[in-house]
Amino acid sequence: MSDDELLKHIYTDDVKPLSEERGIELYAERIYRMTKDTVVKMDGCVTDGTSAEILTLDFVARHTTIPVPRIRRVLPLPSIRSAIVMDYIPGRQLAHAWPTMSFFAKLRVAFILRGYVRQLRAIQHPRSHVPGPIAPGDEARDVFCRMMTGSQAIPISPLPTYADLSAWFNRRYALSVEVAPRWHVGFPSKPFDDSQPLVLTNCDLNMRNILIGDDGRVYLIDWALSGFYPPWFEYVNWRYWLWQGFSEEAAEVDRTDYLWNLLIPIITHGPFFRQERWYLRILPVLHYVD
Fold this sequence. Notes:
Layout: H1 3-12, H2 18-22, E1 31-35, E2 38-43, H3 52-63, E3 71-76, E4 82-87, E5 91-93, H4 94-97, H5 103-122, H6 146-149, H7 162-179, E6 199-201, E7 210-213, E8 218-220, E9 227-229, H8 233-245, H9 252-256, H10 258-267, H11 273-280
Antiparallel strand pairs: 1-2, 2-4, 3-4, 5-7, 6-9, 7-8
Helix pairs in contact: 5-10
């Protein structure tokens, strides 16, 4: 099919979102099944022509053993968005598979995920010194990480250097001390932790983005918010996603399963409790505009 034929099929042939087709809540309202083994994802994280998710999926597929969907085609849309044609992975989201798994099967998944995080942190990329999403060159891009955009999901202007990222957070911390001093009682004032190099971070790890394939492999299927951030972002973003900004999207097991929550620090090579407590102090002013 041509690009025009594919788009016409999506918009005029009443193609149902994957969630509706499967009859369960996948939070995949922008993903449509096109053929038996193909889906189309409407990508909203595009600001300068090339989707960061496309670049990241390609890069992860070439430089790690992490199973991810293969990109088949990119359809330009009449806006800043694009439509990504990619593999459909038969399987179940971890949120649906987890309650049926044995204890040892759960541990296996956790240590597979831990290995994935280790691989991501070992990746060498020409622009790994630039915070935020992958880009074709060395230029910085708008930042979509939920730790910075929060529930409003308004992208943050490009931050060209690690120092700029640190300054962005430190400004909000200082403002938080000023407008919400009670949040800081008994908590020693410290700067943003930029003690470790930036690493490739998924920034959206949760049970709905972890797929247990019918082939037995563990897939990571959503990289729209990925980018280069401090290593502790993976853990703190995960915790924030569950408890602060997006708990309405989290599966009940994602929030309440005791074993799963014990394993999160292990999966992310933590714990990063101190960084999490520091980050929580800036939440009252997270959306402050410079």
